[in-house]
Amino acid sequence: MQLVVTSLLNGVTYGLLLFMLSSGLTLIFSMMGVLNFAHASFYMLGAYFGYAISTKLGFWPALALSPLIVGSIGAAVERYGLRRAHATGHVSELLFTFGIAFMVEEAVRVVWGKQPVPYKIPDVLDGPLFTLYSSTFPTYKVFMMAVSLSMLGALYLALTRTRVGLVIRAALTRPDMVEALGHDVPRVFMLVFGGGSALAALAGVIGGNAFVTDPSMAASLGPIVFVVVVVGGLGSLTGAFVASLFIGIVQTFAVAVDYSVRDLGNAVGFNASAFPTVARITLSQLAPVLPYFIMVAMLVVRPRGLLGTRES
Amino acid sequence: MSPASRGRLLVWGGYAAVLLAAPLLFRSGFALSLLCQMGIVVIFALSYNMQLGQTGLLSFGHAVYYGLGALFTIHALNLVQAGWKIPVTLLPLVGGLAGLVFGVILGYVTTRRAGTTFAMISLGVGEMVAACSLMFPAFFGGEAGVSGNRQSGGPMLGVSYGPQIQVYYLIAAWLIICTAGIFALTRTPLGRMANAVRDNPERAQFVGYDPRRVRFFMVTLSGFFAGVAGGLAAINYEIVTAETLSASTSGLVLLATYLGGIGFFAGPIAGAIVVTLIQMGLSSLTHAWPFYFGALFVATVLFVPGGLASLAVLHVRLWHAKLLARALGVYARMAVPALAVLGIVVFMVELAYKGAEDPPIPLTLMGVDIDSGSAGNWIASLVVLVAAMAAVRWAWRRVAPRWGEIEAALAGNRA
Asked: Domain limits at A229?
C-alpha cells in the first residue's frame, strides 16, 4: 500500500512535468503543423539558465527569469529561422528544429561542461513535508505539482477566457480566416512558439534540480515527450494530459517494482526458467522501454492515439 | 551504342575506376581507414535516401537496421571463429538479411503512417531498440560491445582480411553492388511508385496502389542495404558497440544525406564523403566540430534545401548557359563580408570553448594571446559580428538585382 501511494504521487509529479512539455509541443504542432524537435532542448536550456541564475540571484528570480529568457529565444528562433524554413515545407521545418537541438546540446556542453551541474533544491523547499505509511514525502515534489498545476490552470484560463486565447484557438483551425479578419497570424505563431518554449523552460527550472541537469537531459526526455504526444493523439491537449499522467505513472511504478519476468511467470503458473535470458529481466530494467512499447501497441490498436482526431 | 547508354557506361566505369584507384593514390594508413569509413557511410546514406529522398519518409531511427546488421554480422563472425564454414566475404549479407527481417517487423509498425507521424514513430522505435540493448547484454554486448576477428575465416584464395587494403576492396566491391542495386531499384515500378507516394499519396491510391505497402517495401529494402553497411562496419572495425544503433548514428546519417542533397541519386554519396571528412578532419583541428557541423546543417536547411548536389547542378547549368562568369562576379562581391561573418563566428565559438575551461585558457591567434574570460573581448567581438552582418545585408542588397537577372536568364535559357 505504501509503495502504491508513494509511486502514485511520484508518478503524478512526473506526469505533470511531462504535460508541461507535451502541452507546448501539442499547441505548436496543432497550430503550425511543426513537430518541434528542439522542444526538449528548451527544457534543458531552462534548467541550465535556472541553475546559472539561481547561483547568482537565488532560486525565485530564476523561476521567473529563466522561462522569460528561453521564451524570447524560442520566439527569435521562430521569427528568424522557422519562418524561413516554413517556405520549403514541413520536412524542412522538422529538420531545422533537429539542427537547433543538435546545436543547443553542443552549446550547453561548451558553456557548462559535460558533467552534470550541481543544481540544488532551495533550502526552503528541501526536506519532507508529510509522512505516509512511515515513509516521508518531499516538500519539493509538492511544490513541483503546485507549480505545474497552477501554470496549467493559467494556460487554460488564458486560452479560454482571454482575447489572445480566442485568436489562438481560432488560428488553430482557420488561420486564413483569422488573417482575413485582420489579425497578424505569423505573430500569433511566434507568440505560441515562444510561450511553448517558456513553458518547457519552466518545467526545466523545476525539473532540473529534482532530476539531473546534464547535457544529455534533452536527448533522454525528448523522445518520451514525443511518445506522449503520439499516444495522446496528435493535436489533442486533453489526450496529451491523459497520456502524460499515464506514462508518468507507469514508468514510476515500473522503476519502483522489483519483479522479474520469472516472478510474473510464476504468478500465472508458467515456469519461465526455460528462457534464462528473458527470465532474468526485471520490471525496472523494462522501465526505459515501456513508453515505446505503449506507443507501438497504441499504433497497432488505434493509430490515431487516445483522443486524436486526424489520421495523418 | 546510343549516347545515353554510353554516358551511363562512362559514369559507372568512372565510379568503379575511382574506387579501384583511390587506395593507390592515398597510400597512408590514415587515408585508407578514412576511405573504408567513407565507403560504409556512403552505402548507409544511400539506403537512408531510399526512404527520405525517394519515398519522402523522414526517419530518425535508421541506425536500428545498420546497428542490428552490424550485430548479427559480428556474431556470425564469432560463429566462423567457432568453426562454421561461411566465407567472410559474404558476411555483409548476414547483416543485410538481419536488416531486411527487422525492416519487415519494424516497418510494419512504422509505415502505418507517413509524414511527421512517421518521423516520430521511427524515433520511438529507434529508442526502443536502443533501450533493449540494456536488457539483453549477451546479444548487444553491454558497455564493452561485441568484438570479433575478421581473419577468423582463415585465408581463402589468398584473401585473409588481415591487411586493411583487402578490407577496403571488400567494402568497395559491396559499395558498387549496393549502389547499382539501389539505382536499379529507382528504375523499377516500385521505385517509381515510391516517388508517386512521396509526391501525392492520394493520387497514387486512386491509381490503385496502396501507399502503405509501397512505403513498407521501401523501408524493408532500405533496411537491407543499411544492414549490409552495418555488416561491413562490423568487419572493418571488428567491434560493435551500443552506440552503433543509437540516436546519434541515426542523426548522423540524416545530416550526411540531407547535406549531400536528397533530390539527386548522387547527393547522399557526396554528403557521406563530406561528412566523413568533416568528422575526421575538423575533429583533429577543433573540439567545437559538432557545433560547426550543426550550424552547417541548419544553414543548409535554411539556404540550400537541395544540398550540395543542387549547388553542383546549378553551377553546371550556369556553365552551359555561359552565365558562370557573371555568377562568380556576384560571389566575389559577397565574399569579403560573408567571410568576415564566418571568421568572427568561428572566433567567438573558439573563444567560448577556451573560456569554458576551468580556469579559462587564452585563445592564441597568430601568436597573440586573447583573454577568453574578459567581458571586453566578448563585447568587442559582438560589435564586430553585428557590423559584419550589416555589411552582408548591405552587400546583398546591392547584388540581389544582378543575381535576379542571372536567375531569370537561366530560366529563360531553359525554356
From this structure: 2-257
